[in-house]
TrEMBL record:
CDD domains: REC_OmpR, trans_reg_C. This is DNA-binding response regulator. SUPFAM superfamilies: C-terminal effector domain of the bipartite response regulators (SSF46894), CheY-like (SSF52172). Keywords: DNA-binding, Phosphoprotein, Transcription, Transcription regulation, Two-component regulatory system. Transmembrane segments: none annotated. The modification 4-aspartylphosphate is found at D54.
Length: 234
């Protein structure tokens, strides 16, 4: 895994240097930025595999920076935040972040989270490359082209983030089976469960908005009260 390019955006020097050293020690190439403006300038010139973004920056809000990155990149985005309020974390996930880490944090835990996400990304790409059985999956108005991973409704491409596509693919491959939040987080995000509940629930809510006729009364991604979620194809 070593060698992937990571951008760390953090205005607190002590945190920035500590995380940078931990990531470099794991073999990652790390570029750092203190402000959103510096981060956007770097992102316009180089390709990154993963971004670690502080939400509270001195110039550009981390949410705005996330939206800017998402407009041009499907790279993994992790938020660093000292805000524990659910609304702030959910807003970050809804703006395209894949996951979050709350300050104060153990740098080893952050590196483990980074490594887990990058491994999952490589595995997902590898599985997509080996998929030879079903290139085009269709059910009702919903269609998934596993050749290029386009998702369509009535033939129109639906913009989706990588984690949403991975979640949808997992559901399609495991129809009518019930999975709890922890199981979904393990399968799609990784082993660390600090942020599993909110991360999974926000991504499911976003997925429903994109594929369901009525997100409030879903046909596909159905809640099984007290147990979890299942993808209905009955």
């Amino acid at each position: 895994m070593a060698g992937e390019h990571i951008m760390l955006v953090e205005d607190e020097e002590d945190i920035r240097e500590l995380v940078r050293l931990y990531l470099i020690n794991e073999g990652y190439q790390v570029s750092v930025a203190e402000t959103g403006e510096q981060a956007m300038a770097l992102a316009s010139k180089e390709r990154f595999d993963l971004f670690v973004l502080d939400i509270m920056l001195p110039d550009v809000n981390g949410m705005e920076l996330c939206r800017s990155i998402r407009a041009n990149s499907n790279a993994i985005i992790l938020f660093l935040t000292c805000k524990r309020e659910s609304d702030d974390i959910i807003a970050g996930l809804e703006n395209g972040a894949d996951d979050y880490v709350v300050k104060p944090f153990n740098p080893k835990m952050l590196v483990a989270r980074v490594t887990g996400h990058l491994r999952r990304s490589v595995l997902a790409a590898s599985q997509a490359g080996r998929r030879n059985d079903v290139q085009l999956w269709r059910h009702g108005r919903l269609e998934v082209d596993f050749g290029n991973y386009d998702v369509r409704i009535d033939g129109n491409v639906v913009p989706m983030y990588a984690k949403e596509k991975q979640l949808l693919t997992f559901f399609i491959e495991n129809p009518n089976q019930v999975f709890n939040v922890g199981q979904l987080y393990d399968r799609i995000w990784g082993w660390d469960r600090e942020s599993d509940e909110r991360t999974v629930m926000v991504h499911i809510r976003n997925l429903r908005k994109k594929i369901e006729d009525d997100p409030g009364n879903p046909r596909y991604v159905v809640t099984v009260r007290g147990f979890g979620y299942k993808f209905c194809l009955g």
